[in-house]
From TrEMBL:
UniProt organism field: Lentzea flaviverrucosa
UniProt KW keywords: Acyltransferase, Ribonucleoprotein, Ribosomal protein, Transferase
Recorded superkingdom: Bacteria
Gene3D superfamilies xref list: 3.40.630.30
N-acetyltransferase domain mapped to chain residues: 1-155
Listed InterPro entries: Acyl_CoA_acyltransferase (IPR016181), Bact_Acetyltransf (IPR050832), GNAT_dom (IPR000182)
Range of residues in the leader sequence: none
Protein name as annotated: Ribosomal protein S18 acetylase RimI
Entry keyword Transcription: no
Amino acid sequence: MEIVQGGPEDVDTAALLWAHAVAARDGYDEVPSLALARPGLESALAKEPSLLLLAREGGRAVGFLAGGPQETNTAFVNYVGVHPDAWGKGVGEALLRALPEVLIKNGYERAELMVYVDNVRGVRLYERLGWIKVGHPVPHPRDGRVEQRYAFSPASWEPGV
């Protein structure tokens, strides 16, 4: 598996990966359209330095990570998405293991993200890779599902752990 820096030409690919991932995760009857999936991703990447990493296997994108600045020296990871056909193959872990180097390169001292507490696979992965809970779980403003904030410092990261 190869992790590469994405660019504007990869936004549609990432948005479609997210659409497939969220449809499978949340049990949607249909995969959301590109028109529905793209605006959120564009918004996440609107401020610089933005983060867009793609996981490729056999030349095909199977996952991505996207976000951008939240506050001084802190990046917010809005998306970690893996196509359902690649679930369980270490794609999300590979993306998150590539993140510290990208954070440092872009001048970030910390990253944060929110994850639904019922996304057990995601929660386990973040905690195993050193992400720390911050505060108490809160309801998501749109759908009311409970989510937890997590933080990560690349300074505390140990490659290979």
